[in-house]
Amino acid sequence: MLLNNINQANGVVSLVGAGPGDPELITRKGWRLILEADVLIYDALVSEELLAEIPPSIPKIYVGKRKGQHSMSQDAICHLLIKHARLGKQVVRLKGGDPLVFGRVTEEMQALQQAGISFTLVPGITAAAGCAASCYFSLTERNIATSVRFITAHTCDDRETSWADLVRRDETLVFYMGLSKAPIISMELQRHGLPPDWPVLLVERGTQKNQRSIRTDLANLTVSIKQNHLEAPTLIFVGQVVATQQMDAIMRAA
Length: 254
Ligand code: SAH
Description:
The chain has nine helices and ten strands. It is of the alpha/beta class. It has two domains: 114 residues, Tetrapyrrole methylase, N-terminal domain (Cobalt-precorrin-4 Transmethylase, domain 1, 3-Layer(aba) Sandwich), CATH 3.40.1010.10; 126 residues, Tetrapyrrole methylase, C-terminal domain (Methyltransferase, Cobalt-precorrin-4 Transmethylase, Domain 2), CATH 3.30.950.10. The structure holds S-adenosyl-L-homocysteine.
């Protein structure tokens, strides 16, 4: 977006989706902007595999969480983007998956707009699409799932979550940020009517070389996470579509 009140001496900030991890799953536009960038500002979800392909000559600033430390606040990230743009730099703000899905991109766009900095927004492949493709199942399926819902598990223990509304059997549910909320997800979906053996697929680091996927069901969701020591980033897929996944067969055939 080009704003009317921009100062031409400022650089442009590109808010770019990095995709789910496989370096080939970034858009051509996103990759071009990275190669043209004076500085790259990225967080924890951007995969090592993609970072390794970015020329070392492009300065990279990490703003994610490090072990035992807090991540940089959203305010501080916005200030950093503005600071570099005001130095006349072409800034790429690289975000995991699609910035438009649980990416807090609106806060960054508003801050840039208020500062009179022009920006572009480049979508990416969200984790749900990446993981589904790498596990060979479709998010929607005729007669099985007529809709798909992306849910942040972050707020799952708030009273607002309408569990009764989530237990449609003809829908695929995809929980982002769900690992620590798995006991609530499992309990509430069963309490509101889904059967204990309702299919669940857990996908850790989807599309990356060390991807793991675990097929389980609602009753065994929490135990499967613990037994397999699953870590973030992991997606929780719930619904009949994961029962159709072809990954095992294809892996065996390979
Ligand atoms: N904007 C991102 C989502 C950010 S929320 C996107 O569109 O994908 C962060 C959550 O996304 C993680 O906790 C995890 O649940 C999920 N996630 C992101 N990348 C993932 C990956 N490669 N494999 C599995 N889950 C992933």
